[in-house]
Amino acid sequence: MAHSGDSSTANSPISAALREIPGEAFPRLTPDMVARIAPFGRKDRFDSGEYLYEVGDREVDFFVILNGSVDVFESDGHGGHALVATHRQNQFTGELHHLNGRAVLVCAQTTASTSVIRLSRASLLRLVNAEPDIGEIVLRALILRRARLLDYAEGGTVIVGSCRSGNTVRIQTFLEMNGYPYRCLDTDVDDDARAAMESFHADADSLPIVVLNGLRVLIQPTNHDLAEALGITERLNSSHVYDVVVVGAGPSGLAAAVYAASEGLDTLVIEAVGPGGQASASSRIENYLGFPMGISGQDLARRAQIQAQKFGARFVVADAALRLDCTCYPFGVHLEGGNVVFGRSVVVATGARYRRLDTPESQRFEGKGIHYAATSIEAQLCAGTQVAVVGGGNSAGQAAIFLSAQARHVHLLVRGAGLSDTMSDYLVGRITMSPRITLHTRSEITSLLGEDHLSSVRWQQRGKEECEQAISNLFLMIGAVPNTDWLDGCVQLDSRGFILTGNDNNGVPKGSPYATSVSGIFAVGDVRSQSVKRVASSVGEGSVVVHSIHGWLASNVVTRKTADRPVGV
Known about the structure:
By secondary structure, this protein is of the alpha/beta class. It starts with 12 loop residues before the first helix and ends in a 15-residue tail after the last helix. The strands form eight sheets. It has a five-stranded parallel β-sheet, covered by helices on one side. It has four domains: 13-148, Jelly Rolls; 157-230, Glutaredoxin, CATH 3.40.30.10; 241-353 and 481-554, FAD/NAD(P)-binding domain; 362-476, 3-Layer(bba) Sandwich (FAD/NAD(P)-binding domain). It is built from 13 helices and 30 strands. Helix 8 (251-262) runs parallel beside helix 9 (297-310), helix 8 (251-262) packs across helix 13 and helix 11 (394-403) runs parallel beside helix 12 (425-433).
């Protein structure tokens, strides 16, 4: 096996679990593979006890062990470290953050005089693409190592707060969407959580708090605060001009990033929260090509992000696009954090969000019982209770089925006469047959009740008396509101705010069905007017738009003379 099990420091659940992983997570390369890796890096040697890298370091090199040994540790949450694995001859260090230059989650220390081949991030990416058999082994190992850290997170990052709090759920969602391991201590039921509050002098008004490595405390952090503290944010070069700036990392944006980067375009992706977009709210997508057993929206997004990073795409998360400057070339995307990124082309893939409920009390219960996603985080809040899902699309159907596994009963409310016109048949069949789901047709919510948290919901079915149920978790998956406010009038929109593309732009032929009214700016996925609101179609649009981008870039080269000229419309 590739890992050590005899160290007295390996006393945490994470180290015990990782020591049981089959060889795919800690493989041993063949001598031929090591010989093929050598030209991509350089040889180096370390004395016993030296650190190759430590938790929080960025742009960490990738190390192949020629002789000697290297211990890998994860923070135990108390200022110390727990052993994860020991790498020996012909094995390699690394986890997913080696692909993107973010702050690493583990540290590596030699236990003997050790010789290595070390590769920079750029060299590692060249290796992965030039030697596909080695690349497959390396990527599989990095993915498995991160998966185990997510499954068995024991120290590092700890959330302390009420799991019913909207802020706690937001932080959990942000970390999960970005594939970051954490533990959550629920102050409503967990004695350890109350002890943590006392230890870090936190009162109820300061919750939730996030404790990093048992040392640093963040009080009610924003997503941007978390990204900065954890090293999730990318370091940007303000003078760099990218070939493609993709705004939004839902299915369409991720597909655009994969295809653009794989075809050699310098690609940057900007995402306000984390990869997945609205699709990340889907617990299981079963009609997506190639996944007969289904796949969750978050898993699909994570795989796509890794794929894009493999080809060299960079990601900026927790820093939303604030404004698009389309009056000069290259285009400038202004970010909420104050940075500006420049691109020779822009792909708008910001998608749509679910509509808020049109009742007077809905704003009061935002984050206090109202949800817009149904993942494992929200499902934990529903165990043994009645819940309501509003919406007749596939996302609502998937949510109802997923939640019915934990909730005592699920009420599915739709305004129409049924589901067949708006939902896939396989979902309709499951909902109809489930004894734990009741479909309420021609129904609308009339009021929400509760003190500090939602406690009951009233709705009325057309022609019948108003009904009230004790419901503390309400899932809204209704309508679609496009995320186009940040465009600030830059491109033409339809009457609902979706982006007009192709010949819809006042009937003027644009040469591409994804071209907006401004040449060089494209729109794909749910944000585009008349698009099909399905994951597969969004992925198709994101992949096909790259052909149009190539045509635009070929005729619009950035030079000193053209860098500040207005863009043709």
